[in-house]
Amino acid sequence: MASLHIKSLFLNMGKTVPKNFERFNSSTARKLLYTEYGDPLEVVKLVPAELKEPQSDEVLIQLIAAPVNPADINTIQGKYPSKPPLPAVPGNEGVGKIIRVGANASKEFAEGDRVIPLSSNLGTWQTHLLLPKDCVLKLPRKVQTAQAATLTVNPCTAFRMLRDFADLQPGDTVIQNGANSACGQNVIQICRAWGLRSVNIVRNRPNISELKQYLIKLGANYVLTEEELRTNDLFKSGLLHKPKLALNCVGGKNALECLRHLDNGSTMVTYGGMSREPLSIPTAALIFKDLKFKGFWMTRWTKDNFNSVDRFEMLSELISMMTSNELEAPAHMMIKFDDYKEALKNTLNMQGMIGKKFILDFE
Amino acid sequence: MASLHIKSLFLNMGKTVPKNFERFNSSTARKLLYTEYGDPLEVVKLVPAELKEPQSDEVLIQLIAAPVNPADINTIQGKYPSKPPLPAVPGNEGVGKIIRVGANASKEFAEGDRVIPLSSNLGTWQTHLLLPKDCVLKLPRKVQTAQAATLTVNPCTAFRMLRDFADLQPGDTVIQNGANSACGQNVIQICRAWGLRSVNIVRNRPNISELKQYLIKLGANYVLTEEELRTNDLFKSGLLHKPKLALNCVGGKNALECLRHLDNGSTMVTYGGMSREPLSIPTAALIFKDLKFKGFWMTRWTKDNFNSVDRFEMLSELISMMTSNELEAPAHMMIKFDDYKEALKNTLNMQGMIGKKFILDFE
């Protein structure tokens, strides 16, 4: 690190950097790359990467950790609407530390700063990232690696869905399916932090009581299997207000069961379709109950609100929840970058049952 | 009429009305009534009605015409969410002439004025209606009987759906299914008046070219059968912008075909479900195309906006369209009040294929 520091002094003084610095770094730089869409286990290869010095407005980041999100898998398969031009480095978020600072970035950043990229689809599955200084956000030390690496997708998705689709007041109820998903875990915790009551639907499974305990420890008010939802009298009993918001990442019959409990005039937000079945909405629910059905896609929101006050307020509030232990990282497993195939395979096989995030570990 | 005029003079002077006026009117007053929900042909009976003199703030209306809407049938069957207390007089809209004016109403109304009731579910299938003066709207003479009788449901539904769910500009496209319905015919004409281009989907039928001609004469830009929509290249060819609004009264596969053509971020408004199949929405349409699905129910809108500026602006604009021949009455058939069973039977058997409104004729 000492030599890097000297190098950035060189840069700041506008001098030429000695050649041996390049060689030293380049030998360690590697990236995952795919040149065609297809089976991630086939098309993604680990290859050497070239390191460049930061321009005046740039910083060079050495990655610490980057998660494998289901959307990354779909992107590599060519099944996702955002299709990066090929060849492409996968990966949509992550955390790293700054190892070089461009001259114009030195007021805001220093070597060793822990930062996250603010743009989507930069390709975080590589050891180093060169980014414009306006595309990175410095994090407080207290944010843990797994929290930082997974900050910009799931917690932001949960935050926006709870904030933008209903005027929720403390004491109001939110219902969600796929509650054990990484996003669902964030929904539970943000609901708790905001005084909202969450009703959480999960599929039945062998370890159901363990899963229920885990979600209740996160702050879930109720955790029900699909069968229990169908036969429950939670809302009729008066224990809870009818939900004013439903978050759906499953679709099919499960979503239908959820929407049946919604209060008149409420909204169901769809952000996933794990059952691979369409949403089926009875006409009467639209006309007479005035239910509304919308979708949410974090990628679009980020694109539309890249430099907005809303975005920085959201990131600031989420980071504050993380440092005050109100928002834990999702259940996860760190996997060495070299063992990336294991992370891909596990995510491919997950099918929403395990609810564990696999995070590439570069250290 | 002369005697009635004398009577209202009596009333205005606060004097007692001679008994013989009551007897004269009561002998002609009749109403349709049902005392239990069920088959309209069984439970609806024509019975004598009692006439009362208007209170100071009231007017007495002699009905001229009142339509049989599909929702009236469903209400009588007990299948509709608004359940009037029984016994009830059916009928949700109509036009009449004022035959008595309460003292406090005489500045605004005179005998002979043609008026429509402004409230829903008043029970218009009767020869006379006694209403508070604030619940009636006086119409210009130029509005025809069939237009006036059907003003508050279908034209208002079409108006609000085109106004409240998308920021449409002249040249923008609207797609609707069930385009031959009474509401669909209003949608076509209001689109033409506002410079919107309408793509109208109808089911194939023996007289399809006749129906297409009729709708194109009303102002439809395109009329397609479901099959033609599936194979058309209207939107790909660049002839038309992609629709920014879809109006759905069918559901099922037809609605799915319509939503496939919508521009990103657009809304489908459901106001009926003639196919009796739910709306089936692919997850990707919600998440990646950002399509929104809402419902519209005129009864709720009217209740929520009874005395609003929006409501009177809408009625005023619709009446103006009618007097300037921009908005025709829907295809209809007048049926004598005494033959009400024929109107009920025809509406029951219609199943959306004929697209003709049956209007009870009291004259």
UniProtKB/TrEMBL annotation, chains A, B:
It holds the Pfam family ADH_N. The keyword Cytoplasm does not apply. GO terms for molecular function: enoyl-[acyl-carrier-protein] reductase (NADPH) activity. Residues 39-359 form the Enoyl reductase (ER) domain. It is found in: Mitochondrion. Its EC number is 1.3.1.104. Belongs to the zinc-containing alcohol dehydrogenase family. Quinone oxidoreductase subfamily. This is Enoyl-[acyl-carrier-protein] reductase, mitochondrial. The lineage of its organism: Eukaryota, Metazoa, Ecdysozoa, Arthropoda, Hexapoda.
